[in-house]
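lol ok so funny story. i was supposed to be doing the assay writeup but got distracted and ended up predicting the structure for this chain instead. priorities right. anyway since i did it might as well share w the group, maybe its usefull for someone
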Amino acid sequence: MKERYEKVVEILARKGYRSVAELSTDLGVSEMTVRRYLDRLDQGQLITRTHGGAFVGQDMIEVDYRVRETVRRAEKEAIGRAAWSLVQPGESIFIDAGTTTAHLALAMDDTRRITVVTHSTIVLQALEHKSNIDTILLGGKVHAASHSLIGPIAEETVRQFRFTKAFMGTVGINLEEGFTQSNIDEVPVKRQAAANARQVIVLADSSKINRDVLVLFLRLDQVHMIVTDAGVSREHRAALEERGISVFIAEQE
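and the output, tada:
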């Protein structure tokens, strides 16, 4: 049995993401058996389970947005609603690309006159028909896995804006150093948007805290607040607050 678990982890490490059906073929076992393996490995935090498959916890491997969007969905929806409660009429905000930040856009109603700048095509789709929200999409090269716009054009364009708040996503939070990202190409836009904001707010579910991945893009002292879910431990919350970062807990409905 141990060999089977190790085989699953090996396949996911090599492939990045596999569906239950694909793993069933890879291993020569039933899909029900694969689901049992994945549940056990997910409990041990060796992989990340999605609705129809799994990927390895090592986020340096690119995983498509549609896969990541299924992970911890209820927590992300709650975080999005909580973040929207922080936005006041008349503000100009930046919304980063990512599955958690997208839920801020999805939570927005059309009752407040604001301006949103983003490099996320998912955020654009959520806001394009809302008449009170002026939405500005940065130009640039399309990065398919994250549905974002990157590169010199996006970097130059974002330099022109000033934001009351920048709502940032992150792949991991290193409690000693800062906020990390797996896709190095997105880092310049993220850093510039944060530098041009009066307040930097990171939206991240609690599973990302005390996780470290490829690239550090913001130091702890560059972030004012984190919006996360009730799963954050007392130790992690205290560590963030000791660094001067407010922790806003989003309550699920």
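Residues 58-62 have pLDDT under 50 and may be disordered. Residues 114 and 133 are 5 Å apart (CA to CA).
back to the writeup now i swear
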